[in-house]
Amino acid sequence: CSVVVLISGSGSNLQALLNHFQDNESVTISAVISNKADAFGLQRAARAGVPTQVLSHRDYSDRLAFDQALIQVIDQYQPDLVVLAGFMRILTPEFTQHYQQRLMNIHPSLLPKYKGLDTHQRVLEAGDTEHGCSVHFVTEHLDGGPVIIQASIAIEADDNVDSLAQKIHQLEHQIYPLAVQWFAEGRLQLANNTVVLDGHVL
Ligand code: GRF
């Protein structure tokens, strides 16, 4: 299974994937692509011997032109799966349709709650008692595609944005490799907008 990972920043989820699949012959991380030249994740990829490319959205006149160029770059690697790991761009329907059923994202909330940015802050403001993260298939709806796996924690009285960010990142690093592995093993599909794992509708 060839996997292309898209990042914009630190790439700690990318690192979790690199670690998880380093001795796994059935999953190859074929390339890491960033829209930011200074994304630290590019160094993580290089250290792991994975090819990297930078495609700056600033070099394109509009969202569609960038997404079309991005498709060209990604498809050089003929991926079976495209993984968004902190890729901070809103994608056009042209892009999401091109990778229909083979595009995943991880989001730091218990979807469908708290789509979009600043999830930890919003969870605290709402006084929630639990928080978590979700891996989902990507559709044209931002953070709205069918959920594959979630992990959650109880919120403690002394939690703040930083402590939650740290705790949620740790959970993310556990569940993202799992979802990618299921997909690579052919156990996980998106069919008629529902997630099927081992033949069961989730
Ligand atoms: C994660 O919190 C992920 O849920 C969100 O972006 C962040 C990426 O972190 N989509 P990292 O770059 O993998 O460390």
TrEMBL record:
Involved pathway(s): Purine metabolism; IMP biosynthesis via de novo pathway; N(2)-formyl-N(1)-(5-phospho-D-ribosyl)glycinamide from N(1)-(5-phospho-D-ribosyl)glycinamide (10-formyl THF route): step 1/1
Enzyme class: transferase
Family matches, as Gene3D superfamilies: Formyl transferase, N-terminal domain
Keywords: Purine biosynthesis, Transferase
Domain of life: Bacteria
Enzyme Commission (EC) number: 2.1.2.2
Signal peptide interval: none
Binding site for N(1)-(5-phospho-beta-D-ribosyl)glycinamide: G11, S12, N13
Claim: Transferase is one of the keywords in the record: yes
Catalyses which reaction(s): N(1)-(5-phospho-beta-D-ribosyl)glycinamide + (6R)-10-formyltetrahydrofolate = N(2)-formyl-N(1)-(5-phospho-beta-D-ribosyl)glycinamide + (6S)-5,6,7,8-tetrahydrofolate + H(+)
One Pfam family from the record: Formyl_trans_N
InterPro entries per UniProt: Formyl_transf_N (IPR002376), Formyl_transf_N_sf (IPR036477), GART (IPR004607), GART_AS (IPR001555)
One term of GO molecular function: phosphoribosylglycinamide formyltransferase activity
Residues where (6R)-10-formyltetrahydrofolate binds: R63, M88, R89, I90, L91, N105
Residues under site feature: Raises pKa of active site His: D143
Catalytic machinery residues: H107
Domain Formyl transferase N-terminal residues, every copy: 3-180
Family: Belongs to the GART family.
Function summary: Catalyzes the transfer of a formyl group from 10-formyltetrahydrofolate to 5-phospho-ribosyl-glycinamide (GAR), producing 5-phospho-ribosyl-N-formylglycinamide (FGAR) and tetrahydrofolate.
PANTHER family: PHOSPHORIBOSYLGLYCINAMIDE FORMYLTRANSFERASE (PTHR43369)
Annotated protein name in UniProt: Phosphoribosylglycinamide formyltransferase
Classification lineage: Bacteria, Pseudomonadati, Pseudomonadota, Gammaproteobacteria, Pseudomonadales
